[in-house]
TrEMBL record:
The keyword Endoplasmic reticulum does not apply. InterPro entries: DXP_reductoisomerase, DXP_reductoisomerase_C, DXP_reductoisomerase_N, DXPR_C, DXPR_C_sf, NAD(P)-bd_dom_sf. Residues 151-234 form the 1-deoxy-D-xylulose 5-phosphate reductoisomerase C-terminal domain. The gene is dxr. Catalyzes the NADPH-dependent rearrangement and reduction of 1-deoxy-D-xylulose-5-phosphate (DXP) to 2-C-methyl-D-erythritol 4-phosphate (MEP). The keyword Kinase does not apply. GO terms for molecular function: 1-deoxy-D-xylulose-5-phosphate reductoisomerase activity; manganese ion binding; NADPH binding. Its cofactor is Mg(2+); Mn(2+). It catalyses: 2-C-methyl-D-erythritol 4-phosphate + NADP(+) = 1-deoxy-D-xylulose 5-phosphate + NADPH + H(+). This is 1-deoxy-D-xylulose 5-phosphate reductoisomerase. Residues 266-380 form the DXP reductoisomerase C-terminal domain. It comes from the Bacteria. Residues 11-137 form the 1-deoxy-D-xylulose 5-phosphate reductoisomerase N-terminal domain.
Length: 402
């Protein structure tokens, strides 16, 4: 046992140039005796990927967008890093026996294929791609059980729940309380929110994240996705998963038990803590981060979410209750609508309207397999694209397919 603990854990980071990937590399940078980055992947940011590969001397670097393959191959030539391109390469490399942990931090549905490949190889999954469980939760958790693959949550809220459960000693969970910052529009009225531009929606008051997840936070769809993710991660019935708005973002989530006791996990908003907890589990390692000073924190406040202002939250509960491929339809429609909003093609509330319309018009399948999930995603993206076209009066130029 001592020998296993002392060996460096070899980590593959999918989406290494994004916010989570960069912070994961900072964790590895702080603990070079415990972790080793052996594989990195990115979609478009080839220059950043190149710099990361050189700093960490990784064995493999994968650029998913083939247009950049020649540039990064030439830049890394002679440095001992094998360069590949495409999702097939990602799926092949994450199955390498030398890899211990796969951190999946790719954005959106694009993370599903590689996560499934890593699960089938029996890897420990540090899951930062919530859409994987949203689109195919039952399939993914079933595969993890079949292949003895562990799934450790990296989202701050789910990491908090996971940490709280470590002290529960198997006690029955009464409720999960997912905390939400409320995003940039918590204090705005509905009329103000309806006119919100992307520049305003991207100003998150607490967290620094990528543009897609930041817009999801503004609509509260991010919390809706987390509800679905929590249902699969912790095998808790949807009616036992509650959302509470907590603007200070100090309490990252809470677990309530049958006797009324509530265990909470607290800390400053810093994604490196849940990333490090997943990579080092079950150990807790030191981290150079801002520590809580409770006297300076002062008051912590809590509010019920406002469904009229943030209808996306209700859509997520609806999709989870319907089951089947409905969460996948919801997720695909959200990805397409958020992309259109970021292009200034639709308004803020058009996002939830498009999602709702796609959930009504999409082809429902009660018991989909993994192939059906990929087909559902394609169909729902196309359906959402048609609705966006009608709303914007333009032709969709972005390719939402992953």
């Amino acid at each position: 046992m001592e020998k296993e603990v002392s060996r460096k854990r070899r980590v593959a980071i999918l989406g290494s140039t994004g916010s989570i990937g960069r912070q994961a590399l900072d964790v590895i940078r702080q603990h070079p005796d415990r972790f080793e980055a052996v594989m990195l992947s990115a979609n478009n940011s080839w220059e950043t990927l190149c710099a990361q590969a050189l700093e960490f001397h990784v064995k493999d670097a994968v650029i998913c967008n083939r247009e950049h393959f020649g540039k990064i191959r030439d830049a890394l030539s002679g440095h001992g890093t094998s360069v590949s391109c495409g999702m097939d390469a990602v799926c092949r490399i994450v199955s390498d026996p030398e890899i211990d942990i796969v951190l999946t931090s790719m954005v959106g549905f694009s993370g599903l294929e590689s996560t499934v490949a890593a699960i089938k190889a029996g890897k420990t999954i540090a899951l930062a791609n919530k859409e994987t469980l949203v689109a195919a939760g039952g399939i993914v958790t079933g595969l993890a059980l079949k292949h003895s693959a562990s799934i450790l949550p990296v989202d701050s809220e789910h990491s908090a729940i996971f940490q709280c459960l470590q002290g529960a000693h198997g006690a029955q969970v009464e409720k999960i309380h997912l905390t939400a910052s409320g995003g940039p529009f918590r204090t705005w009225d509905r009329e103000q929110i309806a006119a919100a531009r992307k520049e305003q929606a991207l100003r998150h008051p607490k967290w620094k994240m990528g543009s897609k997840i930041t817009i999801d936070s503004a609509t509260m769809m991010n919390k809706g996705l987390e509800i679905i993710e929590a249902r699969w991660l912790f095998d808790v019935a949807p009616e036992r998963i509650k959302v509470v708005v907590h603007p200070q973002s100090i309490i990252h989530s809470m677990v309530e038990f049958a006797d009324g006791a509530v265990i909470a996990q607290l800390g400053h908003p810093d994604m490196r803590e849940p990333i490090q907890y997943a990579l080092g589990f079950p150990e807790r390692l030191g981290l150079s981060s801002r520590k809580l000073d409770f006297a300076s924190v002062g008051t912590l406040t809590f509010f019920d979410p406002e469904p009229d202002k943030f209808p996306a939250l209700g859509l997520a509960y609806e999709a989870l209750e319907k089951g089947g491929n409905m969460p996948c339809i919801m997720n695909a429609a959200n990805e397409a609508a958020v992309a259109a909003y970021l292009q200034d093609r639709i308004g803020f509330y058009d996002i939830s309207d498009i999602i709702s319309s796609c959930m009504s018009d999409g082809l429902f399948e009660e018991d989909p397999d993994i192939d059906a999930i990929f087909e559902t995603n394609r169909e729902a993206l196309a359906l959402a694209g048609e609705k966006i076209d009608r709303l914007s009066g333009k032709t969709v130029t972005d390719n939402f397919q992953h």
